[in-house]
């Protein structure tokens, strides 16, 4: 482990061979990481189930740390949320997303990119204006960006968050409710939100098994969401059996290891829809 002085890194535990982010001097490490562009995005394909074509990708942030290697979001997003750094990180992620979309445009690739947005970002009154400005600056069509939000975003900061989402959706962005079925999610306020899609949490998908009629919760979630005019995305699809269940239940889109792990920008170039394009 390193020295523990003020502003020092002290988060490497050799006995566990593991980074202990809790002991990290946040402002310094995050600030430097931003400056040195250490955050990168990986991209996981989203497949439309009736055509089995890739129609979009979810952007997932990683921290390419010079000393500790590739850090996954579960290691730093919760702390970034607590410290408020998530707002700066969120803008970096949106900037990276715009850069990638601009590259796709240049390659002639038509796909949307879905980006995770923190509740803390959405509560800022100017979020929507600033985002629309960014899209314009990069020449990105509004309908190629999707925002993945969680319920807490709209429960905690209802007015401001919903105003932002309403403006963005009116401008053509797509809004997707993430992790449905994970928390206290109810259908009641689904109708009140400006949504295009509902993402069924992977803990619900994991309960789908071999027999096709043992999934009443997933099936009725899909039916209800579609009745509300939403498209349904299943996340964390790992097996063929889950895929079969979801197709039978009328699910629109799916993503998960069964199709592909999240890919780097370079790996995307070798992925079929990309090499076929342009
Ligand atoms: P999430 O939004 O639910 O993202 C899906 C997570 O599930 C990703 O983990 C993805 O790699 C993983 N996954 C995908 N397919 C499968 C599968 O078939 N099986 C299993 N077991 N897992 C699968 P990841 O990349 O570690 O991201 C974790 C969480 O970090 C995300 O959960 C999201 O809440 C958060 N996150 C990621 N990127 C961002 C970001 O740019 N901004 C914010 N605010 N949060 C982010
Ligand atoms: Ca997500
Ligand atoms: Ca999710
Ligand atoms: Ca999740």
Automatic annotation (TrEMBL):
Endpoints of the signal sequence: none
Spell out the protein name for this chain.
Answer: EAL domain-containing protein
Q: What is the lineage of its organism?
A: Bacteria, Pseudomonadati, Pseudomonadota, Gammaproteobacteria, Pseudomonadales
Where in the numbering of this chain does the EAL domain appear? 23-276
Q: Which organism is it from?
A: Phytopseudomonas seleniipraecipitans
Q: Which residues of the full protein are shown?
A: 491 to 768 of 774
């Amino acid at each position: 482990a390193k020295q523990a002085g003020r502003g020092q890194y002290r988060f490497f535990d050799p006995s566990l061979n593991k980074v202990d982010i809790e002991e990290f001097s946040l402002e310094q490490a995050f600030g430097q990481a931003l400056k040195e562009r250490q955050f990168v995005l990986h991209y996981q394909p989203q497949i439309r189930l009736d055509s089995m074509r890739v129609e979009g990708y979810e952007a997932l942030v990683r921290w390419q740390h010079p000393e500790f290697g590739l850090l996954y979001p579960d290691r730093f997003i919760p702390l970034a949320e607590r410290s408020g750094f998530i707002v700066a990180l969120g803008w970096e992620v949106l900037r990276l997303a715009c850069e990638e979309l601009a590259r796709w445009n240049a390659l002639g690739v038509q796909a949307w990119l879905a980006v995770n947005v923190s509740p803390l970002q959405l509560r800022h009154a100017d979020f929507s204006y600033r985002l629309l400005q960014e899209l314009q600056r990069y020449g990105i069509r509004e309908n190629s960006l999707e925002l993945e939000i969680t319920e807490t975003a709209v429960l905690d900061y209802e007015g401001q968050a919903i105003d932002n989402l309403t403006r963005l959706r009116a401008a053509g962005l797509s809004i997707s409710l993430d992790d449905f079925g994970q928390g206290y999610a109810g259908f009641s306020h689904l109708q009140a939100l400006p949504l295009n899609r509902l993402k069924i949490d992977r803990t619900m998908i994991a309960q789908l098994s071999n027999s096709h009629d043992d999934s009443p919760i997933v099936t009725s979630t899909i039916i209800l969401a579609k009745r509300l005019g939403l498209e349904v995305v299943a996340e964390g699809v790992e097996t063929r059996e889950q895929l079969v269940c979801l197709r039978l239940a009328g699910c629109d889109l799916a993503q998960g290891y069964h199709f592909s792990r999240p890919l780097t920008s370079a790996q995307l170039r070798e992925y079929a829809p990309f090499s076929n394009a342009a």
